[in-house]
Amino acid sequence: MKRQQQAAQLEMQRQQQIAQQLQYEAELDIRRAEIRLQEQRATDEIRLHREVSDRMTATDEQAAERENSLASQTKRYGDILKHVLPRMQWRRYTSAHQVK
To answer: CA-based angle 40:34:45, to the nearest 5?
Structure first.
């Protein structure tokens, strides 16, 4: 009878150990899932920041291109005016002083 009690007690301990092991594995699986979620969120956040950064870079590049284009146009028109205005003034001077 004592052996039966010992065997039953050992079986109960074994069952408890199995239950504890299963509980530990379940908690471990939950923790792994939480970590995967955190990693996915971090990856998504990095991707979002990269997209925002890319958009800002593109906007900055477009603005710089417009500024350079405007500066380039202004310089070109300024150079043209440097050559045209003196001629216009010379023609006005000569036409006003023509002998009749």
So the answer is: 25
